Amino acid sequence: MNKLLFSIIILGTLYTFAIAENSQPTGDLTFNQLLDNITRAAPARVFPPAAEETGNLASAADGRYWVTVRAADKYARTRLLEAGMDIVKIDEGSVSGLAGPYTMDLLSSKGFIAENRLPLATYAASSDRDFPAADAAFHNFRETTHLLKQMAAANPDIASLFSIGTSAEGRKIWRLRINSNARGEAASSKPGALSLGKHPAREHLSNEVPLLFAAWLLDHKNDSEIKLYLATLDIYNIPMLNPDGVEYDVKSGKHRNYRKNMSVNLDKSHGVDLNRNYDSWWCQAGASSYPDSDTYCGPNAFSEPEIQAVKRFVEARKNLKTYISYHSYDSAILYHWGGSEADIPDFKDRQVFEKMGAEMGRFTGCLSHKSSDMYVATGDSCDWAYAAGSIFAFTFELKGVTFIQEPLPSAGPLRTISRRPPTCSA
Question: Phi, psi at residue 33, to the nearest 5°?
Fold first, then answer.
């Protein structure tokens, strides 16, 4: 258990190490360089854009809104997810997030009160496929691929890289493996630890943390303690599960705040919410069956190529013992169940989740609790991993860099949510 606990804690406390390090740019592919680039990124006005950037914002609207809705408790938040709202921010008595026309109509018919709403601007398509200049330190698909290849090439003694599958648009889903005596897809008897980012495309920090984690381990591979753990663990790192959604989100040079993948649905709309597509209470509470909504669960469980790739990967590796799925923008460490209000039935396992969550919370400053205490959301990757493979799986909701500007009540001026160094601390 000590090995497994360490593998979880070292993943979860990456930014504890990051803050303790005196990060200075070196010009090399190192943890300090990557962290320095991200934490020094200048604040940007991105989503929604300031009015002066778009002229008449309402006339540029594409039908989606940034909306704040009254929601008294987790039950109301669950109903909002079922209506298709992409909840980004939870406050006392309300939530804020993204909603399209279908969801806006449902909110009204179900008695929800929108305290304010702001149309999202339409951005013209382009071939840039990159972040706004102020967020250039973040990595798009091409840059992430390049970094992973560099890491593997620079550390052939312990690192190897391969694709676990392809996305809906044919992009490779890369996996970096760190193991002192097994390469590629070779089996290992060591306990396996998996970190995975970018289920929702818009949650860009969830790609950076796995990249930083890999860089930190490789930088410190000869430190006595790290060398010991690398000799006894089989570590897998999949930073970008949803490359199509990422590319679409930033390809205009602005943040669209797009959540889903890029599958074409039967009604010609695009995208399935990848974290509602696993076979775990599929398409029940906290998921939408309407294809154009942000929380669309897909036509059936495991319908999406990205999620099929995860399924194949996990089922082929019986040594996997721990798994962290990275998300943003809350500040929490979540454990099972997410798709049910019930506790997991195995009392010993439940004690392990509670103890490990509390310990990681102590290290990171995050609150640790059962996922469904926030809202119920079915089709979740961590619920499936535990139910199907007895993998001790946690969701990390990272708090740090955020790309959203909020409208103040009564259509007042916009204020930018502060961008802090990426840590779980509130």
Answer: -65, -45
Identify the residue whose tokens are 């049910």: 340
Residue 408, C-beta contacts closer than 8 angstroms, at least 6 positions apart: 116, 414, 415
The answer to whether the CB of 125 falls within 8 A of the CB of 252 is yes
User: Does residue 51 carry a pLDDT above 50?
Assistant: no
308 and 302 Cβ atoms separated by less than 8 Å: yes
Q: How far is CA 180 from the centre of its chain?
A: 28
Helix axes 2-12, 224-232, angle to 10 degrees: 120
Q: Does 397 qualify as catalytic in the annotation?
A: yes
The single residue of 82, 203, 306, 397 carrying the catalytic annotation is: 397
Give backbone dihedrals phi and psi of 208, rounded to 5 degrees, phi first.
-70, -35
Provide the phi-psi class of 193: left if phi over 0, else alpha when psi is between -120 and 50, else beta. Answer: beta
Residue 270: DSSP 8-state: B
Residue type, 306: E
For residues 369 and 336, give the distance between their C-alpha atoms in angstroms, rounded to a whole number. 9
Q: Which residues pair with 69 in a beta bridge?
A: 95, 114
Q: DSSP of 6-30, one letter per residue?
A: HHHHHHHTHHHHHHHS-----SSS-
Residue 7 has pLDDT above 80, yes or no: no
- Quote the CA–CA distance of 328 and 393 in Å, as a whole number: 17
pLDDT, tens only, 327-382 = 987 789 999 999 999 999 999 999 999 999 998 888 888 899 999 999 999 999 99
SS3 of 69, please? strand
With contact defined as beta carbons under 8 Å apart, do 249 and 203 qualify?
A: no
Residue 261, beta-bridge partner list = none
Q: What is residue 52's three-state secondary structure?
A: helix
| CATH domain 2-44+128-249+298-398 topology | Aminopeptidase (3.40.630)
Token pair, residue 308, equals 């099929």
pLDDT at 122: 61
Residue with tokens 């704040």: 68
Place of tokens 């669309």: 296
Please, what is the angle between helix 305-315 and helix 381-389, to 10°?
Answer: 30
d(CA 389, CA 391): 5
Q: How many CB atoms lie within 10 A of CB 365?
A: 15
Local structure of residue 141 (DSSP, 8 states): H
Q: With b meaning 16 or more CB within 10 Å and e meaning fewer, what string describes 379-413? A: bbbbbbbbbebebbbbbbbbbbbbbbbbbeeeeee
